[in-house]
Amino acid sequence: MRIPDEFKLCGATWKVKFDHDMADDGQTSPENQVITINSSNCRETQLRAFVHELLHACAIMAAIEDDEELSEEKFIRRIEGILFSYLLEN
Asked: Which terminal CB of the chain, N or C, has fewer other CB atoms within 10 Å?
């Protein structure tokens, strides 16, 4: 798997940036539609961080990022269309 420079998610274009001075493995900025990955990590950790941040982006697009009462099944049902959109658009 390759980490893209940008990707589409529900019609919106998100950018992926790399930064070697991050404290975390990755970060999602919904206001800018940017995912930042820590480039000082090994390739596998970068890929894992991208998937993690992509799921945050999906949750943001599904408006569920702060819903603590959401059951696992409801979460999956709400996010599956967003993730399917990513797979179709990229």
From this structure: N
